[in-house]
Design a protein that fits this description.
By secondary structure, the chain is α+β, with helices and mostly antiparallel strands. The protein has a single domain, classed as Jelly Rolls (Sandwich), CATH 2.60.120.620. It has eight helices and eleven strands. Strands 1-9-6-11-5-4-3-2 form an eight-stranded antiparallel β-sheet. The two termini are 21 Å apart. The structure holds fe (ii) ion. The site of fe (ii) ion has 4 residues, from loops.
């Protein structure tokens, strides 16, 4: 579990004894052990992912394969739009509920619409790509389940009206886990590109201290019954990152046919965007159980 509303994760006594610190260190050691069982770095892109916590690989698929994938994905996005018009605004503020349909589901983060569309045959097969599989293992030591794979359309909303929590810097959870976006359409600075702090996936002493401080506040939030602050996806201010000696964040506008893989234990956020702009990507969230020592 990552959320501090859990009675064990948020236990005051156990946390005083260093539970959070120990969970982080154990999970880190296990993912390293799993990686050693499953994969060795072979090229510059893989080394980049290990050293910096993310990598963007342009021209990932050969041109003809990309063209077929692009056609399939555009077709699926259009079919979904035909079936269910893109909703203008969320009904509730914050991290909305999923609105399910035959083609997939819609969910709002603040004013940003996330449309998750069931992948077609080519998109479905993407996680079996051998180069991609190696990258997933480099982060977690585990193969990604193709079931966690979607065609993902993002429609940027008006931040001034309803803020989107995904646009604040955060890390997803307390162990190495991976997200990927294989962009079908190009992403410009206006479209809300991925923003990542290079090297922030490393468990340094400064990071451990920060983690412990955040865990302490989350435990206090649990005692005070403050739900929002009990989240396990800790938020971070830019000044705190600077104090930890981390470099400035970078945003990654990319052409179509680019694969972005990130270790989301590192700090990241969704980039600022012009309202109404869209992104279309294959997307997957690979978060295997952190305490299983066997790689796969
Ligand atoms: Fe995230």
């Amino acid at each position: 579990m990552k959320v501090f509303s859990d009675p064990w994760v948020g236990h005051p006594g156990l946390n005083r004894m260093g539970l959070h610190r120990k969970r982080l260190k154990t999970a880190q050691a296990i993912s390293r052990f799993r990686r050693a069982q499953t994969v060795r770095v072979r090229d510059a892109d893989e080394q980049h992912l290990l050293d910096h916590g993310f990598v963007a690989i342009e021209n990932f698929l050969p041109t003809d394969e990309f063209a077929a994938m692009e056609a399939e994905c555009h077709g699926a996005a259009e079919a979904a739009a035909q079936a269910t018009a893109i909703p203008e605004k969320p009904e509730v503020w914050g991290f909305g509920d999923s609105d399910r349909h035959d083609w997939g589901f819609d969910r709002f983060d603040g004013s940003t619409l996330n449309r998750f569309i069931k992948p077609g045959p080519l998109a479905k097969a993407f996680p079996r790509n051998p180069r991609f599989k190696r990258l997933a293992r480099l982060v977690t030591g585990k193969t990604m389940s193709p079931r966690r794979n979607w065609l993902y359309q993002t429609v940027n909303g008006d931040e001034a009206e309803i803020p989107d929590q995904q646009r604040e810097f955060h890390r997803d959870t307390f162990f190495n886990c991976m997200k990927y976006w294989y962009f079908i359409d190009p992403v410009t600075e206006d479209d809300g590109p991925f923003v990542y702090v290079p090297g922030s996936h490393k468990l340094t002493l400064e990071r451990l201290d920060w983690e412990e401080k955040k865990a302490q506040s989350a435990v206090e939030a649990r005692i005070a019954k403050n739900r929002r602050e009990m989240t396990g996806s800790f938020r971070i201010e830019e000044s705190e990152m600077e104090a930890m000696g981390l470099p400035p964040a970078q945003s990654y506008p990319v052409p179509g046919n680019t694969l972005v893989v990130a270790n989301v234990f590192g700090f990241h956020r969704r980039g600022d965007a012009v309202p109404g702009t869209r992104r279309l990507a294959l997307y997957g969230n690979h978060r295997p159980q952190p305490f299983i020592p066997f790689g796969s």
